[in-house]
Amino acid sequence: MSKSIDIRNMRRGNARVEPAAAAKSGGAVKDVVAGKDAGAVKEGVAEKASRWGFLNKEIRLFGAGLPDKVKEGFYLELSNLVVAGMDIRSALELIRSDHPKRKNRDVFSGILVQIVAGSTLSAALKRDGHFTAYEYFSVQIGEETGKIVHVLNDLAAYYKQKISQRRQIVGALTYPVLVLTVAFGAVSFMMAYVVPMFADVLKRLGGDLPAITKWVLRVSFFAKRYSLYVLVIVAAVVAFLAAQKDKPWLREAGSRIVLKMPVIGAIVRKVYIARFANAMSLMISARIPMLQAIRLVKEMVRFYPVERSLGKIEEDVLSGVPLHKSLGQHAIYPGKMVSFVKVGEEVNQLDRFFGKIAEQYSSEIEYQTNLLSKFMEPLIIVVLGLVVGVILIAMYLPLFKLGQAF
Q1: Contacts 24+ apart (CB under 8 A), 83-90
Q2: How far is CA 131 from its chain centroid?
Q3: Separation of alpha carbons 213 and 17, rounded Å
Q4: Residue 248 and residue 396 in one domain
Q5: How many domains does the chain have?
Q6: What is this structure's pTM?
Q7: What is the rounded distance in angstroms from the CA atom of residue 206 to the CA atom of residue 399?
Q8: Which domain holds residue 343?
């Protein structure tokens, strides 16, 4: 957005309280705190209206921070309200009162309290704890340069793209995971209850059983006798991994496993490369120094191979090594991307070339996730049919042989 805001006006409307108003700041803070429950009357109606809204919510297994969807809406609404001529405090009050979730309103109320007390928006975001270094540093640069609207739009665009990429992957994997779950439950039921019934009949008949029947009976015996122990072990492993999810050894091992998976590994790699390129494009276009941009991107792209490589890249750039040469030393970055970065450095248009890289990989992600979804559906059906067919053949084959004997 080409419109810029004078920094003096922004500071006056953003956070700085006039002397006359400063004497009443205690009462203003009380009003803000009391305002936390100003929308409580509307909360029940809003939550009932969005009862089926869970279908569009983010899946968050761990962590209690603000969802990316909330952040996208927050930055977009704040940008639109500032463009409309509203000061930061009034805009935050409106955003807070219109938000349906009380816990999110509490976050916005905390920010608003700091704004009323004389803090800048960037400092309030930093103290709040729900926002990354990339966000509050970007907002700080927008405040100092008078381009706060442009920065807020960039933040909204970043989270919109991040959400879109996540939804593409989740959408491609949802159907296969659901089908596999139902198939696992059906096969487990057959192995635990149906196959033992056949086993009793076959024991009464006597005779030698086919090899495939013996194998299925062994699996059924194991499933019926040890299934509870297996579930306990799986639950313990999941709990252990959840407790260790932030440990470097687990993050490194998990990223290696994911990257080596067929098709899935390539998609995940492109997702984080696209995020890295998009973040670098935003940073460089905001005229953030390269070293600081790399540090901030390291906070944004929470993928172990990228984080680890950025630590080494920061050291190389500090030593005078060109960015493209440092990127080329790490296998996570494709050669095509390194070539683009090299050209961007030569023509001094890194932000433009990083933007092109992000667009290209985003389109590839969309194509590959759609292709994966279409390929997985018939494959799972075929595999499920084979498993059920093997069980049925193993159970009925001895009966067929018995019928031929008579």
Answers
A1: 83/1, 83/3, 83/149, 87/13, 87/14, 88/10, 88/13, 88/14, 88/15, 88/115, 88/121, 89/13, 89/14, 89/15, 89/115, 89/116
A2: 15
A3: 82
A4: yes
A5: 2
A6: 0.66
A7: 11
A8: 161-406
Name which of 25, 4, 9 is nearest 112 in CA terms.
25
Give the span between the Cα atoms of 181 and 166, in whole angstroms: 21
Ramachandran bin of 146, using left for φ above 0, alpha for ψ from -120 to 50, beta for the remaining angles: left
| 305 and 214, same domain (yes or no) | yes
Domain shared by 45 and 166, yes or no:
no
Residue 393's nearest CA partner among 211, 223, 221 is 211
Copy the structure tokens of residue 129: 């704890």
Residue 127 covered by a domain: yes
Task: Indicate which CATH number applies to the domain containing 255.
Answer: 1.20.81.30
In the chain, the N- to C-terminal Cα span, in Å, equals 86
DSSP string over 187-199: HHHIIIIIHHHHH
If asked whether residues 201 and 108 sit together in one domain, one would say: no
Place of tokens 């019934």: 197
**Is 237 part of any domain?**
yes
- Per-residue burial over 171-205, b if 16 or more Cβ lie within 10 Å, else e, is ebbeebeebeeebeeebeebbeeebeebbeebeee
* Whether 93 and 178 share a structural domain: no
233-258: pLDDT as tens digits: 999 999 999 898 888 899 889 999 99
What are the tens digits of pLDDT across the range 349-391?
Answer: 998 999 899 889 988 988 888 888 788 878 888 888 888 888 8
Q: State both tokens at 406.
A: 């008579």
In angstroms, the CA 314 to CA 330 distance is 13
Element (H, E) at 79: helix 68-83
